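Human
Can I borrow your eye for a moment on a structure tokenisation matter? Give me a protein, with the fold worked out from its sequence. Write it directly below this note and I will take it from there.

Assistant
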Amino acid sequence: MINIPKGTKDVLPSQVYKWHYIENVARKTAEEYGFKEIRTPVFEHTELFSRGVGETSDIVTKEMYTFLDKGGRSVTLRPEGTAGVARAFLENGLQGGALPFRAYYLYSAYRYERPQAGRLREFHQFGAELYGASSPAADAETVAFADRFLKRLGLREISLQINSIGCPECRAKYQDALRDYFRPHLSEMCPDCRVRFEKNPMRMLDCKVEECKKIAAGAPHMLEYLCDDCRAHFEEVKRLLSGAGVAFTVDPSIVRGLDYYSRTVFEFTSKAAGAQGTVLGGGRYDGLLAQMGAKSVPAVGFAAGIERLLMVLEAENVPIPEPRGVKCYLAGLDAAGREKAFLLAEELRGKGISCETDLLDRSVKAQFKYADKLGAEYVAVIGESELLSGEAELKDMKSSGSVRVKFEELAQYLSKR
């Protein structure tokens, strides 16, 4: 037997309704905010992620599924959604259309990392991207969108933390301050952090190694180095969120894990989400398109892991409506009855009524047992006497009562119940 690859998971029919629940809430909320769905390829040229996500990020240095195709080209399974959407935005000339451009996605992504609760090598994300607006209102609206989505799912034990990591100008001064702080501690830090020290010291703040985390806890905060424009931008974001009734706390330690962020960054966390805590994260990334070799376009967005959301929904005991069983099971008592049941089932399905009929030549007792497992609301029994009278005996599986219904009136009868 060939088993499923490590870090992947089957979504069985008995559980997929939970995924549909999250996806339906995501789509509804996105469309209320004017976002339309975008779908991009599952693999892209590797350079897209090394330039867009950042060469110093853990994703690029450790976690990407990268391989050579038959033409010798390096391609990578998407490790996140933003870079692919940015590429599609540019390649399809969407910057020349109506701005701001708003898009959301629901798709799989891939990272080679140690599987753990809510984190797999193949995982799924709901994300939203807004291009063409640099105002604080765009940041606040994006955060409010994420907040509304999580609350609409039924999550209540979540909290929002926000921060500003400034623009390239004020961040350069901050990086100098970080190097001054970390330099005396380099010998105590992990090899990755020693590389980050030279290339991007802000990535040292996001290290997961325990000793590095302890040292980073005493590092200076970006908020102390914001330029006047970035400070004013952040203050306006906070004012708008407060006005919209979105509760938050300022957490200077948030830097996010990808190199393309600037100014506003945010995370929604839950104690039910395990060691990592984050259920949704995002921020502004005005320099992403410039990193990809195009003209700079302001952008802001977020992403949430579906598996992580499912875990938190379960931990918070959020009720997810289970799908109803089939409306009607048509039980044929003999060969002629099974044929009539088959034809009636096709007629009912054509009129939008879900139904099943016997395909295994079961006994009537076995058919009723199967119908009960399906959660069928009604069972229509068709045998010799029913064929002669032109009526099915329709049994209500909840009340156990039964009525006789003409074959041609069966669809109308069921549609009213």
User: Anything to note?
Assistant: The longest helix spans residues 136-153.
